[in-house]
Amino acid sequence: MKVAVVGATGMVGEVMLQVLAERNFPVTTLIPVASEKTVGKEIEFNGTTYKVVGLQTAVDMRPDIALFSAGGQTSLDWAPKFAAVGTTVIDNSSAWRMDPTKKLIVPEINASELTKDDKIIANPNCSTIQMVMVLAPLHKKYHIKRVIVSTYQSITGTGVKAVQQLENEYAGVQGDMAYKYQIHRNAIPQCDVFEENGYTKEEMKLVRETQKIIGDKSIAVTATAIRIPVVGGHSEAVNVEFANDFNLSDIRELLHHTAGVVVQDNTDTYTYPMPLFAQDKDDVFVGRIRRDESQPNSLNLWIVADNLRKGAATNTIQIAEYLVANHLV
Ligand code: 2RA
């Protein structure tokens, strides 16, 4: 497979290269792609040195697959150019996610929707992926009516500049500011920009993408997304109201047998998911599973995952693995 990684020198791009190697994805030729100012930079991959190339050069090399993590505008401008030469694009930006002609895929949930005709495939937002990994199997069995989610999101979701600001604040040095407020010792009630309705784009992604991936617009979702000074992954407090009643042991059993989900739930041993321990792992961890005693047929959950891995790079590569395994590329 000739594989292009567009945004190869960025935070998610670097994790993509790491995960491609870890999972022995069948890369015969790697095409690392980045902005013109980075062209020529050398990248080591699987014992071979590659030079970063520009976008048009990458298109001209006609990769089989192009994994994008380079921002929405680059995706809008260049994904169609790759698709036009026969490349299958899997894009991490929000550019194509809500396009009705594009598939929004979490392999464990809806990879079966994919066909050879899908040349631009959208990877969902990180905070959506980890939530639907847990909600999708529950919806199948108990039918979700409403979801209330509060997220506690890693600073890595904002990007390198924010991580650097956090490190500078701990070191007591002044540097570039990704946020106008200090990040450490703080919780910022804003992830991404605000929309007309007073919600942030991040919060509305949790609403819209959840409905599209699970395939049920009747699921009511409301979200509050908070940025906190951790680096290991995103955490989410999720309250779910079902149409049908349940018992907790069945819920735990169902999630325990869900591929890609690990139940960590024992208050006697203080066992519950935490970003410190989710970092660099590909599973979605769920715990604090308990009935919402204030509301019939309702459940509280705590969900944690590494936002750079299952939330971005690994999910993208799992989509690519599905395409290869099913001869769709
Ligand atoms: C964030 N999910 O965490 C968004 C984009 N990575 O900021």
TrEMBL record:
Substrate binds at Q153, R227. It catalyses: L-aspartate 4-semialdehyde + phosphate + NADP(+) = 4-phospho-L-aspartate + NADPH + H(+). The keyword S-adenosyl-L-methionine does not apply. Pathway: Amino-acid biosynthesis; L-lysine biosynthesis via DAP pathway; (S)-tetrahydrodipicolinate from L-aspartate: step 2/4; Amino-acid biosynthesis; L-threonine biosynthesis; L-threonine from L-aspartate: step 2/5; Amino-acid biosynthesis; L-methionine biosynthesis via de novo pathway; L-homoserine from L-aspartate: step 2/3. Its EC number is 1.2.1.11. Phosphate binds at R97. Keywords: Amino-acid biosynthesis, Diaminopimelate biosynthesis, Lysine biosynthesis, Methionine biosynthesis, NADP, Oxidoreductase, Threonine biosynthesis. GO terms for biological process: 'de novo' L-methionine biosynthetic process; diaminopimelate biosynthetic process; isoleucine biosynthetic process; lysine biosynthetic process via diaminopimelate; threonine biosynthetic process. InterPro entries: Asp_semialdehyde_DH, Asp_semialdehyde_DH_beta, NAD(P)-bd_dom_sf, Semialdehyde_DH_NAD-bd, Semialdhyde_DH_dimer_dom. NADP(+) binds at T9, G10, M11, V12, N307. GO terms for molecular function: aspartate-semialdehyde dehydrogenase activity; NAD binding; NADP binding; protein dimerization activity. Residues 2-117 form the Semialdehyde dehydrogenase NAD-binding domain. It comes from the Bacteria. The active site is at C126, H234. Belongs to the aspartate-semialdehyde dehydrogenase family. Catalyzes the NADPH-dependent formation of L-aspartate-semialdehyde (L-ASA) by the reductive dephosphorylation of L-aspartyl-4-phosphate. Homodimer. This is Aspartate-semialdehyde dehydrogenase. It comes from Flavobacterium aciduliphilum. The gene is asd.
